[in-house]
Amino acid sequence: MKLPFIVVFCHGEKYFFRYTPGHEDELIAVLVDFAMDERLSFGWPEVRSIMRHFGFIKSDQDMPGPPEPDPQATGRFDGAEDPSSPPA
Which residues constitute the domain of residue 36? Predict the structure, then answer.
C-alpha cells in the first residue's frame, strides 16, 4: 500500500511527511512538534496551512497561535516526564 504524503517547502528547506489515512491527527501532532522546534524553519503558518488542507480548521481565526511556554514544562511536548530531570 502506498502511503499519501505531504511535501512542505519552507525557507529553502523541504520537509516530507508520510502518513496513514485515518491518522491525520497523528501527523498534525508531529507537525506541531516541528513548529515548536526552534532549530527548524518549519513554523505555525505551515501547520495552519496543512490543518486547513485536511479540514481541521476553516480559517486562521479557528486556530490560536503557538502555545505559551510553560515555565514548569520539561521541554517535551508529549507531557512525559524528562528522565534527566531531578524529582520535584
Answer: 5-62
